[in-house]
Structure of Amino acid permease/ SLC12A domain-containing protein:
Amino acid sequence: MLLLGGTIGTEMFAGTGEALAIAGPAPLLGVYIVICILVYGVITATSEMSTFVSRSLWFALGWLYFYSFAILVAYEIMAAGLV
């Protein structure tokens, strides 16, 4: 779930309305399909990598992921204000 939420991001939801107004629904749907294929590849590669790495590294990466979200809170609030 963390990988999926980090991959989607706020800008994907905030910029959808503008892209829909400019290009229309068909190209937007095509782009979403391409992005879903890329996200699937990233999630699959990350899940396969988890079997080759020790638990202590995943613990450290979990804390780094938490810190990255703590730093980006201001950006998320600003993007929510633009919607």
